[in-house]
Amino acid sequence: MGIKIASVGAYVPDKVLTNEDLESIVETSDEWITTRTGIRERRISEVETTSDLATKAAISALKSEIAEDVDLFITATATPDMFFPSTACLVQSNLKNKRAVAFDVSAACTGFIYALYVADSIMRTKEIERAVVIGAERFSKIIDWNDRTTCILFGDGAGAVVLEKSENECILGFDIGADGSYKDLLRVESIGSNGEYPWYLHMKGNEVFKVAVRTMAGSAKRVLEKTGISSEDIKLLVPHQANYRIIDAVSKRVGIKNDKIFINLDKYGNTSAASIPIALSEAVKSGKVGKGDLVLMVAFGGGFTWGSCVVRL
Ligand code: COA
């Protein structure tokens, strides 16, 4: 018995916010943003909530608006509509399912890999045949739009995968972890803390950059070692879409050539937990990868958290 990714899907809101648009909001330029990050535009959700985005991504992956046969919903998000019910419960209800296990996972930009890890573990031990794992974010609501060092980076969107039991093993291995001592480098204040600007994202970009490169590369190498798969055998690297320069440095350290890296951050910016499932969905739907191909996913986020996973599609 194994677990496979049976299908993928994604949804992004219609409104496009370009680098040129940002020039009229903060003192920045398209040239600065493009050369430092690779981002050209991002999507902004004006009315759709995180659970709306998540539901639409799940419908795209399920190819159905009803999901009575799903046994488990997990949503990775740092921007839930509510503290509770969880985003996963809201998605479950939208899809007319009244019985599945449903909960959210909080691991910032690594959330999707964490959620996949949890879903995979539960499916191996429990009678759960079918799971929907979603990464969904509305970061536009936790961004300080006066802060040019952060508002240029993030966007809204959602991606999802459907997991099913299978004869062959397709989720081949994980490397996953966290180090909370980095809590001050990337954070959003909430109840119980005395932040001067509750709800807004705070980041020390330079320091995050360096740890991100080191940590993502280390995690990707470890998962390849654990699974006994060489970087040459990987058909596509689907990294967390934070910054082109981070991805470039990580892929060089891991030994993956440029033409084997999936990049869509130019269109969406950093969509946090949604970035890997959106990228995976686009990679599959564009034919860049198909059945039998090995995909390496690697993420990094606030916490700090990190995670990598090798899957055979
Ligand atoms: N437009 C124009 N200038 C900007 C700017 C913007 N949007 N943001 C910052 N600057 C300025 C700074 O004020 C600074 O000016 P100074 O030299 O006069 O002080 C200069 O540009 C360089 O700033 P610095 O922060 O050193 O730039 P950088 O090369 O480190 O790039 C990031 C900044 C944010 C793009 C980069 O650090 C980064 O991507 N970090 C990782 C962030 C991330 O991915 N977070 C999520 C992880 S999951």
What do the pLDDT scores average to? 96
- What would you call the shape? globular
- Structurally, the number of domains stands at 2
Ligand set: coenzyme A
Helix/strand/pairing category: alpha/beta
Largest sheet: 5 strands, mixed
Write down how many β-strands occur, each being a DSSP E stretch of 2 or more residues: 13
Order of helices and strands: EEHHEHEHEHEHEEEEHEHHHEE
In words, what does this structure look like?
This protein is an alpha/beta fold and 313 residues long. The chain folds into two domains: 2-166, Peroxisomal Thiolase, Chain A, domain 1 (3-Layer(aba) Sandwich); 171-312, Peroxisomal Thiolase, Chain A, domain 1 (3-Layer(aba) Sandwich). 33% of the residues lie in helices and 26% in strands. It contains ten helices and 13 strands. It has a five-stranded mixed sheet, sandwiched between helices. Strands 8-13-12-11 form a four-stranded mixed sheet, with helices on both faces. The longest helix is centred in the last third of the chain and has 23 residues, at 205-227. The protein is globular, with a radius of gyration of 18 Å. The protein starts with a strand and ends with a strand. It binds coenzyme A (COA). Coenzyme A (COA) is lined by residues 28, 32-33, 36-37, 109, 148-149, 152, 203, 205-206, 208-209, 212, 242-243, 270, 300-301.
Please write out the topology.
Blueprint: E1 2-11, E2 15-18, H1 19-23, H2 30-37, E3 41-44, H3 50-62, E4 72-76, H4 87-94, E5 101-105, H5 111-125, E6 130-138, H6 148-151, E7 156-166, E8 171-178, E9 186-188, E10 201-203, H7 205-227, E11 236-239, H8 244-254, H9 265-268, H10 275-285, E12 294-301, E13 305-312
Parallel strand pairs: 4-5, 4-6, 11-12
Antiparallel strand pairs: 1-7, 2-3, 6-7, 8-13, 9-10, 12-13
The chain binds coenzyme A.
